[in-house]
């Protein structure tokens, strides 16, 4: 297999040869057919493809949220040095809580309608009290320092600071004190995702928020853990363009503020062009092309990527001739043999239906799985 | 321009939905979904209606199609006001005006095969009396939308999203309409399939001399297929212009912000996307004055007091704004009262 990493310490996540099938009444759906993926530190990796390409299944597998009929046949998912597919369930829980977080497409279905936003955030903190004690105390101390800088420190706050300092040096924290600190911590996070009046939103129920605000609340819940990896699955698809722009901006700002990598899953290439550093293009359970974002848009190599780029309507060009890819996404119970794109490909030749092309590096950092480029870039 | 050039002319259309509350179910307020819209569409033209969710674009298309009864205002189709017609009087217009909906998974009957889906409207409108004529017509229909006659015996679940949308388009064409309202016809489809459907719609318009009202939230799609575009915000058309003019030289600050928020599929043209803070206000309590005022960077006291009328900035280019704003320098001058 090709080595795709550039020094292991730079890579937050390495996925190797991941194969996933779903058992259904109609047959076995071969959803992922050997996916290789690397996410570097502090980068935004775009995972693009049409519906049914396997981008969400990739995310669900990394998250360990495959439905019951899904099965990982082979592969490795290495997050911060640990293979998630090998670990015991208890270790896995800790590594998932601390190392990764996810946000999904439709915030309305993922927020609990009968709990306030605040209680849904503090629930995460209080369920892992051991993990979070240090963090909530440190966060409050930073807050108090900030107040002092603004000259707003009062004797009461000074007393609190002294108490917190003793706590951080190992004294036992009372339940009540922990609750109070986790509330403050949660409000701080709501402020960090630029929600107006975070104290009020803390007490609000999800139905009182607009779509954009709900998605910010979801992002806040994900940030509680200060994750190393942030999986964003179509997070702006349910939002209007003006709100989408706000959320995308927030995402790029957060990446700078807290040291985290992002996998941005989307079907919208325009979003990829706007916020991603690198792009992986998926088709029918395979990654067909990986490149730096500028390189991919300037010099797409795989026939599928070319077709996809030619079919996007451009808001900045007039009278553009839109092209489309003939045919439609294949049925993955009986996937096409060899290269899964060959029945729709204009450049297919004898070898394509017989053999599956490997993902090879054709120029620096530009990988493509296509026989046309086996002897280097054509 | 003479009035009879327009196939459809909508004047000051209102659609308010009552909100009932309290023990007796009295009307306690209204959702002002469409609040005074005037648009006109020429024969053979595509008018795009764009806006964010909740701006009233779908309600507008449904009211124009008389799927909803307008609260007031007129809808003149080919010289006849259809806004108050009922039953037998309305039926001929039902044939001439058809609609394609957003979600082809919901808009086709899962228990009807393609043949009977396409024949049903012919029966309702008494077109092609003999069975043989209808069979021939149905075969021709599937061909012009890019399917083949083998597909006629199949049921909707056997088709992909793009193919279903082709069936929905064929169903609309079955009664030889002159006007088709397309409500987000490609939003549920993947980009490569979206391109197929858009070129099909363009081809059909030329071949069959159709007039479209194209409702969409996707500005890129609208730019590619609409001749003129109207931008809606909170139940009103705030700007209308030939599509090129609208995209190159928007006059309303909302249009400008909407265009600036659209991500471009070109990493070399990255911009600061965020042009608008906040969300669209509720259409229940619409504040007096300009509706966009609260989110507008150029608003003044005048905007809070009265609502602006439509000012003509150029031929066929109108916007509801008191000011002629130069978005580059940020300078603005008041337009003469209309």
Structure report:
The complex is a heterodimer of chains A (378) and B (338). Chain A is α/β, with parallel strands linked by helices and 378 residues long. Chain A contains 13 helices and twelve strands. Chain A has helices spanning 55-63, 89-99, 107-110, 117-127, 129-149, 155-168, 175-192, 198-203, 211-223, 241-257, 269-275, 293-298, 303-310, and strands at residues 11-24, 27-40, 44-48, 70-79, 82-83, 100-103, 229-233, 261-266, 278-283, 286-292, 360-363, 366-368. In chain A, the strands form two sheets. In chain A, strands 6-7-8-3-9-10-12-11 form an eight-stranded mixed beta sheet, with helices on both faces. In chain A, strand 4 and strand 5 (82-83) form a beta hairpin. In chain A, helix 4 (117-127) packs across helix 7 and helix 5 packs antiparallel against helix 6 (155-168). Chain A starts with 10 loop residues before the first strand and ends in a 10-residue tail after the last strand. Residues 1-8 of chain A have low confidence and may be disordered. Chain B is α/β, with parallel strands linked by helices. Chain B is 30% helix and 26% strand. In chain B, strands 6-7-8-3-9-10-12-11 form an eight-stranded mixed beta sheet, sandwiched between helices. In chain B, strands 2-1-4-5 form a four-stranded antiparallel beta sheet. In chain B, helix 3 (114-124) packs parallel to helix 5. The mean pLDDT of chain B is 90. The interface between A and B is large, with 46 and 46 residues.
Main beta-sheet annotation of chain B: 8 strands, mixed
Oligomer: heterodimer
Order of helices and strands of chain B: EEEHEEHEHHHEHEHEEHHHEEEE
Enumerate how many helices of chain A there are, as a single number.
13
Q: Helical residue percent of chain A?
A: 25-40%
| Greatest chain-chain contact | A-B, 46 and 46 residues
Percent of residues of chain B in beta strands?
25-35%
Largest sheet of chain A: 8 strands, mixed
**Rg for CA atoms of chain A:** 23 Å
- What class do helices, strands and sheet pairing of chain A give? alpha/beta
Mean pLDDT level of chain A = 86
Placed side by side, the strands forming the largest sheet of chain A appear as 6-7-8-3-9-10-12-11
Rounded to an integer in angstroms, the radius of gyration calculated over CA atoms of chain B is 21 Å
Low-pLDDT stretches of chain A are 1-8
Q: How does the overall form of chain B come out from the CA principal axes?
A: globular
Helix/strand/pairing class of chain B, anyone? alpha/beta
Uncertain runs of chain B are none
Shape of chain A: elongated
Please tally the helical runs of chain B, counting DSSP H or I stretches of 4 or more residues.
10
How widely separated are the two ends of chain B? 20 Å
